[in-house]
Description:
Blueprint (H helix, E strand, L loop, with lengths): L9 H14 L13 E5 L11 H19 L3 E5 L1 E2 L3 H14 L4 H4 L1 H15 L2 H8 L10 E2 L3 H16 L3 E11 L4 E3 L4 E16 L6 E6 L10 E4 L13 E3 L6 E6 L11 E4 L5 H9 L26 H14 L3 E14 L7 E10 L2 H12 L4 E3 L3 H10 L4 E2 L1 E2 L9 E4 L5 E3 L15 E3 L3 E2 L1 H5 L2 H4 L8 H6 L2 E7 L3 H16 L4 E7 L2 E2 L16 H8 L1 H10 L7 E2 L2 H23 L18 H22 L3 H28 L4 H22 L4 H8 L24 H23 L8 E6 L3 H9 L1 H7 L2 E7 L8 E6 L2 E6 L6 H26 L2 H6 L2 H32 L1
Parallel strand pairs: 1-2, 3-4, 9-11, 15-23, 22-23, 24-25, 26-27
Antiparallel strand pairs: 5-6, 5-14, 7-8, 7-13, 9-12, 10-11, 14-16, 17-21, 18-19, 18-20, 26-29, 28-29
Helix pairs in contact: 1-22, 10-11, 10-15, 16-17, 17-18, 18-20, 19-20, 19-21, 19-23, 20-21, 21-22, 26-28
The protein binds one RNA strand of 73 nucleotides through helix 11, strand 25, helix 18, helix 20 and helix 23.
Amino acid sequence: MIQLDKQYQPHDVEKRWIEYWDKHRLAHADETRDGETFSMAIPPPNITGSLHMGHAFNNTLQDIMARWQRMRGVNTLWQPGTDHAGIATQNVVERQLKAEGKSRQDLGREKFIERVWQWKKESGGNINHQLVQLGSSLDWERDRFTMDEGLSRAVREVFVSLYEEGLIYKGDYIINWCPRCHTALSDLEVEHQEKPGHLYHIKYPLKDGDGALIVATTRPETMLGDTAVAINPEDPRHKGKGGKTVILPLLKRELPIIEDSYVDAEFGTGALKVTPAHDPNDFEIGKRHQLPSINVMGPDARMNDEAGPYKGLDRFEARKAIVEDLKAQDLLVKIEDHTHKVGHCYRCHTVVEPYLSKQWFVKTQPLAKPAIEAVRSGKIKIVPKFWENTYFEWMENIRDWCISRQIWWGHQIPAWTCGTCNEFTVARETPPACQHCGSTELVQESDVLDTWFSSALWPFSTLGWPEQTESLKKFYPTSVLCTGFDILFFWVARMIMRGLKFMGDIPFHHVYIHALIRDAEGQKMSKTKGNVIDPLVMMDQYGTDALRFTLAAFAAQGRDIKLAEDRIDGYRNFCNKLWNASRFAFMNLEDYTGTCALETSKHQSLADHWILSRLNRTVADVHQALEAFRFNDAATALYKFIWNEFCDWYIELSKSRLNSQNSVEKYATQNVLVHVLEATLKLLHPFMPFITEEIWQKLPKDGTSIMTAPYPEFDPHKEDSEAETHLQWVMDIINAARNIRGEMNLKPSLKIPLRIKTDDSEKELIANTSAHYVIELARLEDLEVGPSVVKPKVSASSILSGAEVIVPLAGLMDFGEEKKRVEKELKKVEKEIIFLSKKLSNPSFVDKAPPEVIEKDRHKHKDLSEKQTKLQVHLNTIDQALA
RNA sequence: GGGCUGAUAGCUCAGUUGGGAGAGCAUCGGCCUUACAAGCCGAGGGUCACAGGUUCGAGCCCUGUUCAGCCCA
């Protein structure tokens, strides 16, 4: 005999099934199996990562898809793996070294990298372990890491091919430099924040003594690297000054005044200082006018030799000193408050410096074209669709990608400089000699590649590329990529470009972009703000299934999720509800000899037919929602079915049958009960894997695990609209009686009589054959139905369509209460009748609206009018009694 | 400056081809009715941001405004 605890206790349940699933290799995808496939690669979490709510959300949605497809019988691969996260990981290990009083330079490159691998071995698996706890059905036998030998080979293959095609080059350009991480960053890796600052107006005297040009700048320290002042040729204020010379304050260098239409005459004084080595726009102007570039800072953002007297100062110290000196020399006209966007390193939040430097780049436009086309043509669908605009916007204005990083942890650039001829040799494997002159004096580039260079290959590198493996053939292109919008450019766009280039095909058919999880106030969760809700804590406190269901239920498309703990609490209660419904089932299945398979039986009740029809409808709703990535709709459909239909109605309605002495009828209902419960558990399994497995295993079923049990399918023949209509009528009666009971303050323990007066013979018949339902659920003393039912003078009544539900209340009647109740109802009905009358007497409505809409409204109007009459009659009797 | 998204009950939000404004939580009243008090039954509560327009009919479509958030330059 199976008995369940009174409350669901998730802890040991979760642990048990995780081990069981693993032992039976249920998440393993078989590349040799024929038939339909579904594949999906996890957005690889950083090895430095710990599961946060964003991961929990992202992976819950993926797991729902994976489990759903697997149960549908589709050959399903959910590819796991982690990202080496160059800068982030290097920072973590450097911090550890610092605590030991060491730097990475103290260790040297080789030893440092060893140390990172060591760290990875010890802590890099945390996030994977946490994903398992979340229930993620990833195929761990295929676990990959972006620095694996295989994936590194893919990286070298791509680098060399692109280089050979001329799509990778090295050159001097303005890049974003992080003085803390000591590396270049791509444009995307810079976060711009609005910051209060100042606009300094500085006097640049003309050499000929004829006054001065006033320039405005937010970064006065960069003036040391000025090589010109620019004006707009159309600016009347500066007419004739083009070609003259000004004297750079402090350093007294002579600068030409150049004319360039880039200069915005409306901004400031219309004169722009040009610093090609420290500003991307100035760099462009410098190129146009063949200006020299003077770099005045070192890699640590301290002023260098070019800065003259300011040499050795940090950039912000230099700013202060320069402002003071300008003031002293009366060259500072004014300082205005000015808010402007300041770029920060996305890893350490240090203010980045635009910096002239020799770096490697990927020429991106030729790769972007087909990637744009893939989305425009619909080969790749981005869901929700509005993200496509953002994608196009970025892709059409894409700039070359700076891929070299001056750090040690990552894929070292496979390019070697010849000590003899100074040329590059770029090769897949370490070359024995220079391919230009044959010299063996080769030195490999010390830089490593941007982490996103390897992530961009993820959908095919994880499947074995450049080897033509069976897995690659089977599972590429993948079906869905599920991620947040924050890495749409970083990752998604680049995967599309790489997939098309190297696989000759799109990397995935759908991109599902989900929202961001925020705190209850809508703030981004962050450790510094202290508003983080830790998924692991929530899982521990409420159960993993409760957290997962909460996330799914809030996953409405295109809207951020404000998560508060009480919402998880609510879905914990839902778990418990399901648990107790199952508990009820087990209590009533003790003598049951059948299985979960539905048996055809003449002995099924109206409630049995009804719940089977409702189940079938729910199956359709869940499939439809999941196909459209509407996770919240699927979750809501399940929630409503389980709580409001199965628990609130079906269980209550079937109690009498389950206690029946008629063993044939009892068996038929037991069969429906267990069938519906099992189907429901399967439907719910992708959302709540643990509790569903726990209950399912106790049922009389076939199979190893619910994880591989067949997902219920919609069957149009199972729709039973007659049962639904009939039971709806029964529910209407019960609701009417309950309403009267509630409004008239009749205790639930008090059994009341009920009369139903109706001329509708079908309604009469159903009410009579279903009398036992009404008697039990409305807690009746007795029930009388028919056209000739006599309505006692002292009674409460409710008017339904085609029937009046009457509760005789001799001795219990509170006429005042009943009058209030009826008047309220009457008011509502009258309001609606006026609205409908107006509508129906409007000739253009009757003329132009579709006939079925008009018919519906006419019918409603008739119904309401009858109801109004009856309510009026009832009200009159009350008034008489009160008089 | 360009673009995107949102504004619906006290709170958080659903509302998919335009045709009866919904859920959860919170509130109020009544219940330990033998699966569940993490529960059951009943009730109250909204000019769908504002102003126009299209339509027989608009929360939904169009235009404008205000406010909020995000992305890019």
